[in-house]
Amino acid sequence: MTVKDILNCIIEVAPLHWQESYDNAGFQVGDLNAETRKALICLDITEEVVDEAVTKHCDLIISHHPLIFRGLKHLTPETYIERAVMKAVKHDIAMISMHTNLDNSYLGVSRVLAERLGLNNLHLLQPSEMEPELCGAGMIGEFVNPMEEVDFLNLVAETIGSPCLRHSALMGRKIQKVALCGGAGVPFMQDALRQKVDAYLTADIKYHDFFVPEGNILLVDGGHFETEQFTKELICELIRKKFPTFAAEIAETKTNSVHYFVKK
Fold first, then answer.
1. Which residues are within 8 A (CB) of 222 and not within 5 positions of it... i.e. 6 or more apart?
2. Do residues 87 and 115 both lie within one domain?
3. According to the model, what pLDDT value does residue 140 have?
4. Is residue 153 part of a domain?
5. Per residue in 20-30, pLDDT tens?
6. Labelling 227: which of 104, 154, 163, 214 has CA 20 to 30 A away?
7. Per-residue pLDDT tens for 86-141?
8. Boundaries of domain holding 18
9. Model's pTM, two decimal places?
10. Which of 67, 99, 131 is a domain's end point?
11. SS3 label, residue 113
């Protein structure tokens, strides 16, 4: 098994040309034709993740967020990015990142989140013009039975494991039709409004963005890491389905850079 084999396995459902123009998804570090025996799957690559890969004798790390997002002008111990790359090279660990190409896949990040919440009749929130059935942003689905807003918020918090949620004012209406986008999905809020959903779940919502719905939908910020965390299981599942005997496991290292203080 080569690193290229694993890469090709994932891009079957998330081709690299689906990534956004600003992105740097794909192969990042190592030898694409090198043999690989074990992969560590994570959302973010940090020095601690590379240490875990070394300890577990993994020769490949697959992340959602690219470690190398912008060009590196040097490799020194100056930043955690450079230190992680240096450590990976030292231990012959290759790196692959599946970012906005996996965000934009119908079988990708938002679909997995929607399924975890129990939504049905799933379809893309903003289909692409080229491949509207397979590629696009976000997801829309429905609950079999409508629920109270507080029950919906409790469901979201429990599903993503968050101690608290930021949201717009409660409207006193039932929640049944839901749009969502794992990660930073504010640019697709207007699509959610046009499709008259009851709630829109995403992350990285700014203060003034909460005014935009004007009481027409319940806007919920679940957190960037929290709404994308199931991507790890998705990548692992794709690999195991294609290569049942290949050793792929999810990293134990916690990489969420945001912490919550909940007053007691």
1. 156, 160, 162, 165, 201, 202, 203
2. no
3. 98
4. yes
5. 999 999 999 99
6. 214
7. 999 999 999 999 999 999 999 999 999 999 999 999 999 999 998 999 999 999 99
8. 3-99
9. 0.96
10. 99
11. helix
CATH of the domain at 8: 3.40.1390.30
Non-local CB neighbours of 248 within 8 Å, separated by 6+ positions = 38, 39, 41, 62, 235, 236, 239, 240
- Give residue-wise pLDDT tens across range 183-225: 999 999 999 999 999 999 999 999 999 999 999 999 999 999 9
Give the count of alpha carbons within 13 A of 210, CB side only.
Answer: 12
In single-letter form, the type of residue at position 45 comes to: I
- Cβ atoms within 10 Å, residue 173: 15
Whole-angstrom CA distances from 75 to 29, 66, 84, 86 are 13, 17, 10, 7
Nearest of 262, 259, 238, 242 to residue 250 by alpha carbon:
238
10: helix, strand or coil:
helix
Long-range contacts of 184-190 (CB under 8 A, 24+ apart): 184/224, 185/137, 185/138, 187/137, 188/125, 188/126, 188/137, 188/138, 189/213, 189/219
* Residue 144 DSSP class: E
Kindly report the length of the chain.
264
